Structures are given as C-alpha cells and as structure tokens.
Here is the input.
Amino acid sequence: MQELISLFNEYGISINHTTSLVAILGIIILTAVVVHFILHRIVLRAFEKRAAASSHLWLQIITQNKLFQRLAFMLQGIIVQLQCVLWLHKDSETAVIIVTIAQLWIMLYALLSFFSLLDVIYQLSVKYPVASHLPLKGIIQGVKLLSAIVVGILMISLLIGKSPAILISGLGAMAAVLMLVFKDPILGLVAGIQLSANNMLRLGDWLEMPKYGADGAVTDIGLTTVKVRNWDNTITTIPTYSLVSDAFKNWSGMSQSGGRRIKRSINIDTASIHFLSPQQEQKLIRSRLLKPYLEERRKEINAWNHGQNDEGINQRRLTNIGTFRVYLTEYLRNHPRIRKDMTLMVRQLEPGVSGLPVEIYAFTNTVVWLEYEAIQSDIFDHILAIIDEFDLRIHQSPTGYDVRSGLGGTRQAPEAG
Here is the structure.
C-alpha cells in the first residue's frame, strides 16, 4: 500500500491511507471479475463446446462433473490471495481478513475439485469390464469423507489461528464420540474393502438375502448401503456391513457357469408301483429311449433267474417305477436344452405320506430366467403326460370331485314337470 501512495505522490496526486485502500480493493475486485470472465465465459465455454462435439468419453465426463469449473474457482482464490500479499501490508487487518477468506475459498474448491476428480475416475472405471463390477463407489465415498474431515480441520484451525496438530490431538479425547457418530461410514468402508478384496459382491450380481427381503440384482454399492432391485421391481436397501457380518446368497456363480439347476420332484402314488407284465414290456420296448435298456436288462434278469433255478417271489423282475426313472434319465440326456457336462440324474427320495418323491436334478444350457422356466415347465409337462404310460399315478390330496366320485357320482338333476 505504501508503494501505491508513493507512486501517486510522484505524479503529484495526494492520497491518504483510506483512499489508497479503496483503490487497492477496487483493483483486486476488478482483477477478480476480469479473471472470472476470461475463465468462465471464454476458456470454459470453449472447452465445453469442444467436449460436447468430441467423441472422447473422458472429455464429456469431465465436463459433467465440473472439474475444470471448480479448478477455475480455486485459481481465482489463489489470484486474490497473491494480490493481497502484493498490494496490502501483511499485518494489516484488511489483509488478514481477505487472505483468510481467500484461503478458505481455495481449500473449499480444492476439496470440491478433488471430489470431481474422484467422480471422473469412478465413472471412467465403470466403463471397463475389469473395474465395472467392483464396489468402488463405497471406497470413493470413504475417501471423500476422510478428505472432508481433513479439510474441515484445516479450515477450523485457520479460523481460530491454531495449529491443526492441536485439533487433531484434541480429537483423541473425542474418539468414542466420533466412532459413534461415524460408525456406519466406518463399518461401510471396511465392508466395501472386504467385498472388493474377497470378490464377494459386484454390481449386477443376483443377491438373495431373506433376512432383508432382498432377491434381485445389485444396482448400487455405496459407503453405508447396498441397493437391490428385486424381481418385482421394488428396491431393498441393505446396510453394507451386513453383507460381511450376515450370510447371503450370490447367484453370480450360476450365471458365470452358463447353466441353471433344475431340482424339482414329483410324488408317485406308491399303490401304483408294481412289476412290469410281459404285455407292458412289449409296449414300452417300442420306445427308442427304453429299447436298449429293456433288452439289456431282460437278458441280465433271465440269465440271473436261470442261474438261480428258482421260481416265485425270489425271481428278479422289472418294475414300472424303475423303468420310468430310466426313461426320465434318457429323456433328459437327449433333451437339447439340458447340459450334458454337468450333473444329471433322476433319483428317488425318502417315501412319506405324500408318496414316493422322484427328483429331477439337471442343469439347463441357459441362465436366462424366462428361458429357464420355459424349459423346466416343458420337461414337467412331458413327465405328467407320459407317466400314465408306465401305469403310475401322481399322488395328490383328494379333491371335492374325488369325494363325489367315491360316493357314487355327482347329484342327478331333478326331472322336469
């Protein structure tokens, strides 16, 4: 300021301290306005137009997250601070106030610029297959939280004129309170790192967690919550740390394998199970799927019975349930939508009051839900329709129609007249 007064005095212009202060503030404000106009009206507008017309994705992402705009504001604060140091006496009250405001401005927009940079990195990373499924959002949110705390401490120390080390040392006494306040973000940050390091969950995975009513695709993995879009299009929000502390089912392995399991059983009425008669064998041997089996088994059984030289109940004979199980196995092996390189079997489960369960255990060659359900329905449509050919019956509880039939049929309609 003294240099400015001397400069005016050389030209014969007498000014006092107040006039020189107003002139300096006018220069600082004018410079700030000119710099703002150049940066925001000329430079940034030209960059935004180029980014909009460019095919480069990174230019568009930078523009959307206002990275350069926030850097420009930070640069304006730096210029104001340099002008104060240049024109004003460093110990003057005006200089202290303006420099403090400028430094707070610089720290604020430095933090916002860092946030924008992290957003740019995140949006670019999800475009690549390697990083698109990692829970990076939660980690980035954690970094943002830590950065905001550090910058907040620096800003407070600047306002009170104390060293940041004093504030940081004072935080030790408030550790319990801070742990309570930031419990969810801290647990979420730890959980996000564990999920990423152990490859437990990715965006797009099919997650099933009955405790929270979640059964659908993961759409967002944040610092404190994970969002799941259920198959009925409802949204379930799960605490991130619960994915580490509780059990959940991730169906991504099924999707990656390319085959989805069919594991369903039908209950056979045990009263319909019996040995095959020669007439039934002749009828079933016409089936292309059963002919090799029946011919081989007939030779094996005849040889065994002849060697035992025994008649009656000790003789070996084919059963309709066993032949039916072999038919289902061959039917699945010849089905074009069933994978042959994965487990495929038809087995009997423990019989109970609902009959004898016969379970189909196989894998389809698709993981698409609609196609999977269509294949499964087609298989069981055929099973329910073909079972009568083996003289077997499906077990089911009696209906009203069954009761009326057992009592002699439906009621007769009254005669007219």
User: Anything to note?
Assistant: The chain is about 60% helix and 10% strand. The first helix runs from residue 2 to 10.
